[in-house]
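Replying to the earlier thread about multi-chain prediction with a worked example.

Input:
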Amino acid sequence: MSLRNFKIYRGDDERGELVNYQCEVTEGMVVLDVIHRIQADQANDLACRWNCKAGKCGSCSIEINGKPRLGCMTRMNEFEEDQTLTITPLKSFPVIKDIVTDVSWNYKQNQEITPFTPSEESKKKDFVMMQKDVDRVQEFRKCIECYLCQNMCHVIRDNEGKENFSGPRYMARLASLEMHPMDTADRIEDVKDKHGSGMCNITRCCTEVCPEEIQITDDAIIPLKERVVDRFYDPVMMLFNKIFSKKERQKTKSKVSSFLKMFF
Amino acid sequence: MLDISGIKRLQFDVLVIGAGGAGLSAAIAASQEEGIRVGLVCKSLLGKAHTVMAEGGMAAALANVDERDDWKIHFRDTMRGGKMLNNWKMAEIHAKNAPDRVRELEHWGAVFDRTRDGLINQRNFGGHRYPRLAHVGDRTGLEMIRTLQDHGIHQGIDIHMECTALDITKDDSGRVSGIVCMYRETGEFIIFETKSLIFATGGAGKSWEVTSNSWEYTGDGYGMAYEAGAELIDMEFNQFHPTGMVWPPSVKGILVTEGVRGEGGILKNSEGKRFMFDYIPEKFANETADTEEEAARWLEGDKSARRPPELLTRDVVARAINTEVKAGRGSEHGGAYLDIATQRSAEDIKKKLPSMYHQFKVLAELDITKQPMEVGPTCHYFMGGIKVEAETSMTTVDGLFACGEAAGGMHGANRLGGNSLSDLLVFGNLSGIKAAEYSRKLKSMPKIKDEDIKRIIKSATSILNREKGNNPYLIHEDLQKNMQYNVGIIRTKKEIVDGISRIEKMKEEFKEVKAAGSSQFNPGWHEALALRNLLISSEAVAKSALLREESRGAHTREDFPDENKDWLEYNIINRRGKDGKMETIKEKRGNPDSELKRIANSSIEELENEVKKDHEKLMPKV
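Result:
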């Protein structure tokens, strides 16, 4: 047990300051425990978001010494005993109060995505999907919507970027839908125009902060960018796409690729 | 005089409070009804409710893994798990409808783990005869809530996030007319006028010190419904999940999924003994393995072998761990050892239980593929809740519906793992449809009385306006300690009586509770507002626990250690008496449908034969 020093942002979007607190830290404590202790004993009105306290709901996203982290999954023994911890709100979103930010922009992005669309025919019987065909989709669906990736994305940090790019979280969601074996909607044009896949220049900051270790850049964003390129920038594919519908395209593509595999 | 003319008002046909699995299901179902305006209010951000913490899966007799499964067997398992105290009709509706609801979730985009044939895979769980839980690794709840969220936002539902419900209003005839709420961000009040109201507000697990529940589970639905005159049922049945984390202290209570045992995990004491073989109740002896050899064969898929005793129902396992610890055979930090490392390969563990692997690695610095976990009972779930009519989910107040953990009856004295997620889907859906039907019949919006609005707002703001008063956090901590020690997993008359008198004292302290600061995003104020509901819930639990002089399912009385068949005839009801005090009474249970009674009381062999014949009749003739 030891008395440790903290600086916590208190205030709103316009005005605020780092306030010093001291808190007894015992074995196994995480940063969220410290915030709760301070809240109970010293600052009843200190605003913070949290729910599950086990890294599953993605509510307690904050910046700890400038790094975006989940408060509930950051253990105090990661830090030196004499180190002062600075706890601040996510930088990319407006502060509501203290370390709570307004993340409603993210919900608006989700609303813009064409939802899962299976065919009416397919719903008449049980879906048959092989595990290997859904592994990738399940990886994206591990996302807990903590928005640490959104916060870290330099396109979104720049406020104008928010108008042009839905961000890594929603690239992963789009990828999960586009790669779902039973989905029939076509979102590739939206991926390019509405969701702005071209804005990402693959700096991989999002992947680095993901607490679920989802390979957002390599497994979601790059494949989506490839589909956009195939559709809109490859002259041969453009012609091919003009001729065939999405279903036919997929069928023909797999026929072509199995044909090619015979030679290469 | 308080001026309420400036307060925003919105009108709905159906308003749902709570946006976990049940609330989202209810809102979606109601929104499919033509011309019905649906609102949804939640305390947290959308998609963060406690449903995300559900890990193991949702139980439904899909029969994808074992073709012998059927709603009848699921129903029988549920009744036996609930020690026959379940609402018969609810258990029937649940078992019959769960498979369709799971398929519907898949159609909305949920991606379950697959069988070799590409169907929804199902896993074993405590108390379920066959592998029955549709799942996604150990994050099934997240999959469920995200699917409902992503589907729900396109159904024209008006969603109000981070909004706390304060109290219900009724018109002169006693019908629900609306609810007064408060936006947490700004502290502004809002009045929702509605023809019907669905409570999907979860339980009150935050009444105990060691709990798997988050801050939201303060019994808001129980408190508000009680204040509005609704009845609470079976409140003495509080499920302590046998496996919560016990070390380090800051994570004490966080859930360790039953899936660990479903995947073969075994429980050992400090002497290295696999102790569950010593705790097999007579009632389950025929269906439980009595040697390690047989349990191992079962794990390998031998259908003639019986289930390992680690998969007995939660009440049995929780009591067994408690007994081992009390006898001095506990683990280093006062729990039992849960060992999956010696039962499955490291690769399997990481694939089947990824979030458990991650959780222990980060929070306890322990590698579960190499070392055993330390686990102990943690408060997890309320079997009891607001009393509802099985076929409609309507409470005893006109226009007030309840579903999910907020509603009582379906699970009887003990809930089987996996039956919660399916309950959320089945009864969320049902209550949404029934509330819409109810609202459609009302020609006009029931009237809200101004004096009610003023009373509700005044009681909320007085907490902020008081010059000085008691710290809400500290009252809450006292309450949690009181429930933990006096109305915990093993109960006696003396302790419960002491617990009740302490609750009375806390109710007095609550009258003088004070939150410092402004009304904007003020957790101290929110904590104080939740306290009233926590106190009502705890009082109902304690008083019911005192009255039920027997041990049944999750309710264990040291002074009445056995089941008493006379008590099987009664539920316990809590309601507000004429004098304003809580009344706790015995209520005779209705007679069950004779067919349901026959199914629940059949031997497993009889029922398996019957189901086999049923299935043969359905098979197409070749």
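Chain B touches chain A through 66 residues (CB under 8 Å).

Feel free to reuse this layout for your own posts.
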